[in-house]
Amino acid sequence: MAAVATCGSVAASTGSAVATASKSNVTSFQRRGPRASVTNDSGPRLVSIAGTRPSVRNGQLLVSTGLPALDQLLGGGLAVGTVLLIEEDKYNIYSPLLFKYFLAEGIVNGHTLLVASAKEDPANILQELPAPLLDDKCKKEFDEDVYNHKTPESNIKMKIAWRYQLLPKMEIGPVSSSRFGHYYDASKRMPQELIEASNWHGFFLPEKISSTLKVEPCSLTPGYTKLLQFIQNIIYEEGFDGSNPQKKQRNILRIGIQNLGSPLWGDDICCAENGGNSHSLTKFLYVLRGLLRTSLSACIITMPTHLIQNKAIIARVTTLSDVVVGLESFIGSERETNPLYKDYHGLIHIRQIPRLNNLICDESDVKDLAFKLKRKLFTIEVREFLCFSLQS
């Protein structure tokens, strides 16, 4: 809990550092010229970290989620020091893809990974990461994927409701490998040499907790306690908290936690409406967010919220998360055979986006979003409804 208490002081020091750095910038009233020196005593700026960029809205450092279309919906990317909560679809088919895209983006940019799971060995998860698409090959693969999925019905000219014509178009195709965020081929696996060259840490719950472990009275489950200790050790030992800035070049820690809140983690919130560990999950998120706020790290969590019976717990989990994205699959529902949804595999709900340094959160202006998994690409698009006019 000490990490939470120091959150305000670290945020204040970070703000003063940014203000000091901004004074050295050339204003619009000064003549532009070559830089006098590339060496600067102020040290490297946060924006110089590979795979990051400052937000155009508030200057907050951003990382890509691995899906450029999702980055656009979140205001440019996921802010460093925040939690992205993915509400799993009913059969947990599409949420693992977003989880793996986030990790794959970290490997491509040279970020450090921390993968935690109670179901699957983190080493096996890394072996299933999608392969990146770069440059001309990326453009070729995308064009081929679009062509293979084009249907005769898509060539029919239809009238679309006017309000959907005014919505911004989502990015679904590659532009350049040098851009912020990359595209990935879901049909291929990440090259082994990239995985071997990456720096990653794995937390596999069955290996961390033995059956003979003595459980001390605590408000957290043993799994959550062990995971928090593991995350805290990685942050402090590798200098992601800024305590050892001269130790090595600054980098980003990407944390991925899979199926949090499920019975595999020793939590009973999915089994009973008022379980004995009903507050364990919310306390875990509270401490985790304190650790993230004081470090160069970003976290993605997948959670089976559709199994949580207590709606009050879901509301608290949403409050303790910075970004909340829900996936609703059409599998097993009436929409699966509905012709209005034949071009999509499910809906995506942007339930909450962060408004940092404020007490409230924003809501996305773009509604009616749908996703589809093509042969190679996972895309997010604005759902289009057809509006037929009756003619006599």
TrEMBL record:
InterPro entries: Elongator_complex_protein_4, P-loop_NTPase. GO terms for cellular component: cytoplasm; elongator holoenzyme complex; nucleoplasm. Its main location: cytoplasm. It is found in: Cytoplasm; Nucleus. CDD domains: Elp4. GO terms for biological process: tRNA wobble uridine modification. The keyword Nucleus applies. The keyword S-adenosyl-L-methionine does not apply. Pathway: tRNA modification; 5-methoxycarbonylmethyl-2-thiouridine-tRNA biosynthesis. Keywords: Cytoplasm, Nucleus, tRNA processing. Belongs to the ELP4 family. Component of the elongator complex which consists of ELP1, ELP2, ELP3, ELP4, ELP5 and ELP6. Component of the elongator complex which is required for multiple tRNA modifications, including mcm5U (5-methoxycarbonylmethyl uridine), mcm5s2U (5-methoxycarbonylmethyl-2-thiouridine), and ncm5U (5-carbamoylmethyl uridine). The elongator complex catalyzes the formation of carboxymethyluridine in the wobble base at position 34 in tRNAs. This is Elongator complex protein 4.
